[in-house]
Design goal:
The chain has about 260 residues and is of the alpha+beta class. The chain has a 7-stranded antiparallel sheet. The protein has 3 domains: about 1-35; about 45-175, Umud Fragment, subunit A; about 175-215, no CATH class. The radius of gyration is 34 Å and the shape is elongated. α5 (about 215-235) crosses α6. It is about 35% helix and about 15% strand.
Length: about 260
């Protein structure tokens, strides 16, 4: 019991427990979102500017963070949905994430639905990036500007329903830039690892070394003085009491008249 209590009183053990709890909470939140939204990767980062509509010749998530489209560096939340429930009423149609029909193993594409149609019982979606082509969102684009024929080719049928990963239900501006920074810089990940190691060093290693290092002469003198004071108070309590109760007269007294 005493050993267990001493472990819980240890500050380093408490810090390790807190770090472990933070990691557990982050993983728990991710898996909860994954289960709730029904997709294996419910969170992604927008990597290209194909969905960005320029305002005043500016196309970035910093100047128009809350526009109704997507920008580079946005974090998007993806929800699995029945393809038949997707909104194809352009320009207020859904933004979907789908696999490239010509290369399903490549990075998924996030674009807006322009139209839908059924071929032999299969639902197909024509899509387009809001910022691609001459007719930018919310203007109605021509079929020549659809993804099918410009980015990939599926005989102009569009994206089949089985390649739709999900619908974008939320965007969080700015925060995806951290991921893009780590991907775009070979020294980004080593920098993060170095900062974590520095934090561990400052939090755990250095305090342990300080505790194990021999006391200096000044520390020894202070400890000896404290011990002598304690002994004096035990062997001669009256002297100690008089020392504590004696008060110097700081304010002089004056007689009237």
């Amino acid at each position: 019991m005493r050993a267990g209590k001493s472990v819980w009183r240890n500050e380093y053990f408490k810090s390790a427990v807190v770090i472990g709890l933070i990691i557990a909470v982050v993983l728990g939140v991710f898996f909860t979102i994954e289960f709730g939204l029904g997709t294996s990767v419910p969170i992604r980062v927008v990597e290209s500017g194909s969905m960005c509509v320029p305002y005043d010749s500016t196309c970035n998530g910093w100047s128009h963070a809350f526009a109704q489209t997507l920008h580079i560096g946005d974090i998007i939340i993806i929800q699995k949905v029945n393809p038949a429930d997707l909104n194809a009423n352009y320009p207020n149609s859904d933004i979907i994430v789908y696999e490239n029909p010509n290369d399903p193993s490549s990075t998924p594409i996030v674009h807006r639905i322009v139209s839908e149609h059924v071929v032999n019982g299969t639902l197909y979606f024509q899509t387009k990036g809001d910022g691609n082509g001459a007719d930018k969102w919310p203007n109605t684009p021509s079929p020549q500007e659809y993804d099918d024929g410009t980015i990939w080719n599926n005989n102009h049928q569009g994206v089949p329903q089985n390649l739709v990963i999900g619908r974008v239900v939320m965007r969080i501006p700015y925060f995806g830039w951290v991921t893009l920074f780590l991907r775009g810089n070979s020294w980004g990940l080593p920098l993060i690892i170095g900062l974590i190691m520095l934090l561990v060093l400052l939090e755990f290693i250095i305090p342990i070394i300080r505790k194990q290092s021999p006391p200096t002469q000044e520390t020894k003198n202070e400890n000896a003085e404290a011990k002598n004071t304690a002994l004096t108070s035990i062997t001669n309590p009256q002297a100690s009491a008089s020392t504590l109760t004696a008060k110097p007269q700081l304010i002089p007294s004056f007689k009237k008249g």
